[in-house]
Amino acid sequence: MFVLRMFLLRQVRKSDQRSKPLPGYLIRRLPGIFEFLGRKPRLRRAASRLFINSFAYATSPRPRPFSMASDYTTWPGLTDRRFTGRHLPPVNQRHLPAEEDVVNLYRRPKDKETKSTDTSALFTFFAQWFTDSFLRSSRHEPGRNSSNHEIDLCQIYGLSAAKTEKLRSGQGGRLKSQLIDGEEYPMFLEPKIVGDELVVNEDFKGLHRESSLRPFVDAYPEDQRRLMFAVGLEYGNSTIGHTILNTVFLREHNRVADLLKVNYPDWHDERLFQTTRNVMIVLLLKLVVEDYIKHIAPFDFPLEVVPFIAEAERWNRSNWMSIEFDLLYRWHSLVPDHIGEGADRLTLYDPDKPDKNLVNNNKLVISRGIENLVAQMSRERAGRIGLLNTPEFLIGVAEAPTVRRMRAACLDSFNAYRKAFGLKPLTSFEQLTTNTEVRRRLEQHYRDIDDLEWYVGIFAEDYPDYRMMGPLMTTMVAYDAFTQALTNPLLARNVFNKNTFAEVGMDIITDTHSLQQMIARNSKSPGDVYASFRCDPGGK
Amino acid sequence: MFVLRMFLLRQVRKSDQRSKPLPGYLIRRLPGIFEFLGRKPRLRRAASRLFINSFAYATSPRPRPFSMASDYTTWPGLTDRRFTGRHLPPVNQRHLPAEEDVVNLYRRPKDKETKSTDTSALFTFFAQWFTDSFLRSSRHEPGRNSSNHEIDLCQIYGLSAAKTEKLRSGQGGRLKSQLIDGEEYPMFLEPKIVGDELVVNEDFKGLHRESSLRPFVDAYPEDQRRLMFAVGLEYGNSTIGHTILNTVFLREHNRVADLLKVNYPDWHDERLFQTTRNVMIVLLLKLVVEDYIKHIAPFDFPLEVVPFIAEAERWNRSNWMSIEFDLLYRWHSLVPDHIGEGADRLTLYDPDKPDKNLVNNNKLVISRGIENLVAQMSRERAGRIGLLNTPEFLIGVAEAPTVRRMRAACLDSFNAYRKAFGLKPLTSFEQLTTNTEVRRRLEQHYRDIDDLEWYVGIFAEDYPDYRMMGPLMTTMVAYDAFTQALTNPLLARNVFNKNTFAEVGMDIITDTHSLQQMIARNSKSPGDVYASFRCDPGGK
Predict the structure, then answer these.
(1) Domain assignment of residue A322, given as a range
(2) Mean pLDDT of B508-535
């Protein structure tokens, strides 16, 4: 039975190996087929299960013999999750180009952004906000991380029970919040540099490690620091995407808590809070699978969080975020040069127009409001994931450190990872990409395809327009995402029920499938909300 | 397929429900059948797999919706293992007798020890030493524990990497040790009470939390404290069993490290240590399954650590030690009134003969030596697990606190647990036990069988002579033991191989099946070693 199933899954996956596009007649029909599937609950469920398992079985299940703790198998390396995990053992690759040359492979030529097919800038910010919560490699201690290794919505709840405490209002299960011009936001953190010390509002002392928070405060325009919010993670104010999504989820938390309170008037603050949190984590999981990953899948495949899908599966093993998952998710090329046009035009970072920056700009969020910005982000296409498409601003602050980390981790080659994740190794750069400029540069730096570094290869792979990334990146991101999101304890057979979420919470979970819904029900003009990971420039 | 297998397993388990003994013709034949099985590797493996799964599927797999964190489902309750787990939600049982009356149900009448059929006192001490390493409920914070939730041999390695460091010699992968009269022992801890402070040898500062160590030092005879050893856990000197087994495993560690060093001369201390630890943890798992649990099983069923047995199983889920596992393992009745006769006669605790005490007596271990004491323990029968058989000395210090904890945890009834673990609830005290004295006293305290408390019921259940405990206790201990020992990461498909243990280590693992072997190969007169969990008074 298991063997038969594995054979079937292999067949599905084999169709995925090729970077060649599907034949035209299929491409034309698949959107219709998927739409049909999406309307048939049982078919949709079966198709989702097959889709998810086809990736979850791409490689062997955890535990891995190695982590970043050491180059051979040790007990701390098998058990201490403060060390980052790793899929393949370290290898000293030879014949590597200089780091600087590798970094340059990512640089987007000035004013030559390559746009994605139909991915919105909202997707870009959601990806960052979502993954920053569990991919928490330490900046200072190589091989270490501060991740909880779970999707736990620490973006709004903080990294530990003690930190959560500081963010709670202590009333009605709510999170602390304030109204600014009638709109709900987190409280202000009020960071100040006194002497050489960083101090924050007394209520939020200890919410972040000072050394972790400090760089984000230093980078924030001094006259705007009073607008930084107290949220779960230290970089929660660093882009308008973080601020928008933290605010949306905070509003939803308080909305759900209020609903529970009405329905269960004898529940105290603690029970209201904890039950709301249970609901919120599952809402996030649903949005991730049914809205976000759905968009990553070709033709917006109608994915579903199949109840208890992990129950009988060999991939249902303790989570452990790997260094590869952390590095492959650095989709800097998704960041567009600008969002919108004319007076509304926003840029990533322009020192001359700080009011229009996407980074460190809570003022923009407060003045324009969530709905307005989300709609603008939904109408702008993101950059296309790939080489030669990382914005200049991110080359130094993001791409160079990533390449440095990849090298320090002694990752195995691109072809070694293809083999490990069930794909045939490539035999030439021609198989990798038809982009002659990319091929020329790779051939200049690497003796042959077997020397190609993994981190470079996954961004160099060709892929057709209806995909968002190449076969190896797709497989690896899907493997780690599915096997670590769908193993969440809240989705387990004994837990996913009315006792855990209350009837009211269960209904909300059942009815929620998109970020659009969540923003709309917290908006004063729900009909005007437009939030989409699939970019439609004419979207409402 | 899964359904069919579950049906088969149910059939096996049904035969286990009854407290009635098997028919005589089977009883006479089973030992022979099992011995035959034991000699046929493939049959033995298949039989072991069936045996293990029959218990591992007795109830639904983890995760549980509740832990001791709260009475309803919360995120910390699902993820924070500093809270103790629990199998069933809390219940306020009514009509309960006074705690004191319950405690009295356990008291062994003076000089009326009930002996087990064929279990040795060595088994008693191994059980304590083994379980004290992962059942670490906090004495001071109800619902909390300090367990790593893994079988990690923290008895000799300590509870964290920083503590392990203090116990390592830093040379050749060895643990710190000393020779006393030519025999290897751990180093001395040298605890001293200075003013009101507890100080230990500088080398071992921070090895234990002072508040955890203090009661054990206070209880130790003051003139003997200089003989307390520096070992992994704070109670590592509290019985001669702890001292003996810590010493045996320390000697084996250093023996294996030396062997690895000879075979891999270019390995540094760290690699030698870590690889030795990998080997040692698996050796412990092998002894536990193939020697210790084998003896618990009827007629010493030839159990085997089946390679990768957990791989495809739904019970392969993250470990979480439950309050029930912790409480059911309090086999105080196993402790015999005395061990041996005449001049060698040892008693649990006699203030008039401190030299002959089983508690706080490293002097005895050092003077008599490991082999001598182990042989004496192997020749003495343990007490029989059940009510009315806990030694007087343990009533106040062990049984009363256990009953208090059971009550504080609001555990569900005996019958509720029978149902949860796949056994039919009982309808009368007659079904529970044929012991008229026990029945009379239970009927006096409990209105009817549905009121019977779980902790009392599991010790009151009848069982035939070829078993060691009743059906519910057997099922629950086997469920938690198998699903938490065999999920050890060192046994996983990607890990259990020569890379992890080195060829030398792999051979040692393959060849080791008993504590007898481990003691013998560290002994100067291996031929004289007699170590057995099955008591044979005439044993060599």
Answers:
(1) 2-187+229-528
(2) 96
